[in-house]
Amino acid sequence: MKKGLVIGMLALATSMSFTVASAAPVKTTREVLVDYTKQIKEAAFGKAMTAKGLSGQQVKVAQDKLINELQLSSGKNNSLAIALKSEPTKSAERLDSLATIVAAKKMATEISKKDSAEGQSIDAAATASATLLANSALTGARKSGKELNTQEMAETTAALQKLETLPEAILTRFSKAERDSYTKIIERHDQIIESGKKGSSEEAFIEAIMEVKKVDRTKALEVVRKLKECV
């Protein structure tokens, strides 16, 4: 994770059980999440531990079980299901990310037993990541907008698509302050989308950064460019 992203975000199978064994406390948060994710993916996808190569029916079963674990609103559940199949080339990757998010929520429950603030932070960020995925079908739907030119729209689209692929990094490598900032931005992004105030997901994202971080459009676009370049 580039330092720029950290700075930027600061400024900015039908029945399966997802019961997970407690992880060793001596491991880092990332190592614990990897352990939880392996267990969740094996339960959801089988020994291959990836959605790639599954049949349509197997994908549907895994998708429904993972979505149910998140306990989102029915509207968000529907949006998430649509997003997972809206782009066939990204479907498996998004489902893998969803498994990581479910694992993070399981991990957060265990962490909360010793550090409630950290556990709540991870849980909230995991829910935000699921919300971002639920809104991903809207990403790239427009090539320009009233408030963003074509280049700015493309950059913001790329940043949102990059965020989709980073749940593990966001949940384990960000500090609590950075993670909480990310959560607030994604929550506000979702609220703006739901309100219909903006004509695109990208414009809503820029507005969310501006409101949460109290910066102008130029600074918000700088955050987007740093995020887009993150590897």
Describe the structure.
The protein has 231 residues and is mostly helical. The protein contains eleven helices and no strands. It has helices at 3-11, 29-45, 56-70, 74-86, 88-112, 116-134, 150-164, 167-172, 176-195, 201-213, 217-228. α9 (176-195) packs across α10. Mean pLDDT is 87; it is low at 1-7 and 10-17.
Furnish the topology, listing elements before pairings.
Blueprint: H1 3-11, H2 29-45, H3 56-70, H4 74-86, H5 88-112, H6 116-134, H7 150-164, H8 167-172, H9 176-195, H10 201-213, H11 217-228
Nearest-integer average pLDDT: 87
Rg (CA only): 17 Å
Q: Give unreliable regions as ranges.
A: 1-7, 10-17
- As a percent range, the share of helical residues equals over 70%
Structural class: mainly alpha
Spell the H/E element sequence: HHHHHHHHHHH
Count the beta strands.
Answer: 0
State the distance separating the first and last CA atoms. Answer: 6 Å
Overall outline:
globular
The percent range for strand residues is: under 5%
The largest pleated sheet is described as:
none
What is the count of DSSP helices, taking H or I runs of 4+ residues? 11
Short summary:
With 231 residues, this protein is mainly alpha-helical. It is 71% helix and 0% strand.
